[in-house]
Write a structure and sequence with these properties.
about 150 residues, three-stranded antiparallel β-sheet, globular, 4 helices
């Protein structure tokens, strides 16, 4: 009997699709410095976002399409290593937690403290953006190295 895992078991279909979406739609938004800074500022102003419907006569704040595209990508990460907001003391102390990805395992709580849930959410957003850019930068460096060494020929 063949003990190797199949592509379905390895989730290769989803991984390939997610990688394509990241390269085609997300990375261009984050690699352009002007767009990246605009998205970061938009997120800082309203990290959680609100429904666009009217509330007590006031329009809600909805994230732009570009920011929603980036947030959708960041939220599709697997649970292992995913950042979450931990409330240590209501309305006073919020921390960033890192999930183990294993049910029942404790969450690692980072030391940095935030005075609001919004500030903590924005810090998580910045960490995720940096990690995403670093992940794909490594791939680009490898690709350039292979190209320089003429592995493409």
């Amino acid at each position: 009997m063949n003990k190797d895992k199949t592509g379905v078991q390895l989730n290769q279909g989803h991984t390939s699709t997610d990688d394509y979406i990241t390269r085609k739609y997300v990375l261009p938004l984050l690699k352009d410095e002007k767009t990246r800074n605009r998205l970061i500022e938009e997120h800082r102003a309203c990290p959680v976002g609100k429904a666009p419907a009217l509330h007590k006569g006031q329009p809600g704040i909805e994230h732009s399409k570009e920011l929603r595209t980036v947030l959708d990508k960041l939220r599709r990460q697997p649970m292992a290593g995913k950042y979450i907001t931990i409330c240590k003391k209501d309305f006073k102390d919020y921390r960033i937690g890192i999930c183990s990805g294993v049910r029942g395992q404790p969450i690692k709580i980072l030391e940095e403290s935030f005075s609001s849930e919004e500030a903590c959410e924005h810090a998580i957003f910045l960490k995720r953006v940096v990690e995403l850019l670093e992940k794909y930068a490594e791939w680009l460096i490898l690709l350039k190295d292979l190209y320089v060494k003429n592995y493409w020929l």
